[in-house]
Amino acid sequence: xxxxxxxxxxxxxxxxxxxxxxxxxxxxxxxxxxxxxxxxxxxxxxxxxxxxxxxxxxxxxxxxxxxxxxxxxxxxxxxxxxxxxxxxxxxxxxxxxxxxxxxxxxxxxxxxxxxxxxxxxxxxxxxxxxxxxxxxxxxxxxxxxxxxxxxxxxxxxxxxxxxxxxxxxxxxxxxxxxxxxxxxxxxxxxxxxxxxxxxxxxxxxxxxxxxxxxxxxxxxxxxxxxxxxxxxxxxxxx
Length: 238
Known about the structure:
238 residues; alpha+beta; Glutamine Phosphoribosylpyrophosphate, subunit 1, domain 1; 6-stranded antiparallel sheet; 5-stranded antiparallel sheet; 13 strands; 41% strand
């Protein structure tokens, strides 16, 4: 699989929707996570990321303008011991509870389907980073309708052991803008990861479509110690 330029991928797609990037830093020392949200409606754009313990949650920027909190307000990132969970919906909590009950990542998601927002039927995308013995591995998942047919659910999981320095995988909800929105297809894209956390964060944010981008979260986790640095950028400033 060709290694893609992540910033170029975003610059040439006005609406990838919500996206997850997981990989390893160039120096090989850190696990890298990014999660961004975009929006076309006023309700979707009326959001920010805020810290919530060791994770984050979404919050209405202007509560008086919030129309429908379902599918909008959730915890995209949570920690469970040496595992960091990142998703585009409330399946974060499903995975957390499943892993806490000694289920696997895939088993935890078995009861979930795509989002009930027809005709888009937005895929649920998820990832988990597992620190182990001074290193880490990660897994990603997408749950989607079968080519827009809500009567059939497709589930795909991908596992990455000992990821290579300077690269990661990128999974997003939509192929591009459209009506209805076309779901992502194929396995997560292989992308280059470069720079420190600030260069990585700023490069991603600047590459997202100016009209549609809403919020971005990034985290670099030291694989040896488990310590981390995080960044949050919100288009709606508090």
